[in-house]
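Researcher: Structure for this, please.
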Amino acid sequence: MNEEHLEPLDGHGLEIDDGQDRQEQLLVPPVPVSADPLQAYLAEVRRIPLLTPEEEKTLAVRYRETGDRTTAYHLVTANLRLVVKIALDYQRQWTLSLMDLIQEGNLGLMQAVKNFDPTRGAKLSYYASYWIKAYILKFVMDNWRLVKIGTTQMQRKLFFNLQKEKNRLEKMGFYPGPARLAEAFSTEEDKVIEMEQRLGDWEPSLDHPVGDDWRETRGDMISDTTELFDIRIANAELQQIFSSKLADFKKTIDKKELDILDQRILSEEPATLQCIGDRYGITKERVRQIEARLVGKIRTYMEEQLPDFKHLELPATSKDES
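Model: Predicted structure, token format:
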């Protein structure tokens, strides 16, 4: 989404356009809005000045470097209009509460500010729009079954009494299928099935479009948890360095410690404490103590050799008691 071409919000008098004359955007509403929470919120948002690209970048860099909450507050509030614009687009599709959608979008905006990297060259509003949409879509998908669930008298009747009727039929020894339930409520079978789908555990297909005029499917909205390529390469390189340093560390320990390192700490199938204890004529508890001390020695050595060692995880010591 490019906020430079956003039109005014229909029916609310809230300008989104990021033009030169920003004072004209802060129009005072012609009627009092204090009695309407939505209008009161929009009136407050109108009073917040927009940021120039230079101001936005300066604040974003400052927050990235310092984590200052006041700076984050300025970045968030300056982009509240973008949330309203996106929320309106979804509200037209899903007839949910606009304030609920705005609230969820604001959460996405805060996450966007928290994760935004100004050095990558993207505008905060462009980056934030994806976070805002993601949070709003999650809210929509979590609540989609409640949309238009009781718009007719029969739907309301089914909504409040369907489960009771199913329980009653089961107690009488009858299977509460759609046909029998439809007969009990004097309605069509497909309406019973539809209500059961909305009230039950039925989930929509991931290949189904999000809206009538949308190309995106619900599957398109699922986040990709794949590790970023650059992070994967960096971690692989760090692991390779760690392995090299570990080989150097092995030269600094005695045979007993080396045996415990290879047979206990690094092995995919660790030897038992008893096995190693019998080999060296010591108790299981003594082996455990040597193992714990050895892990500490490795950590100290690696922290001296690798400043980024804190990002790596040492293999956990075995809890084997035998």
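Researcher: Any notable elements?
Model: The radius of gyration is 31 Å. Residues 153-216 form one domain.
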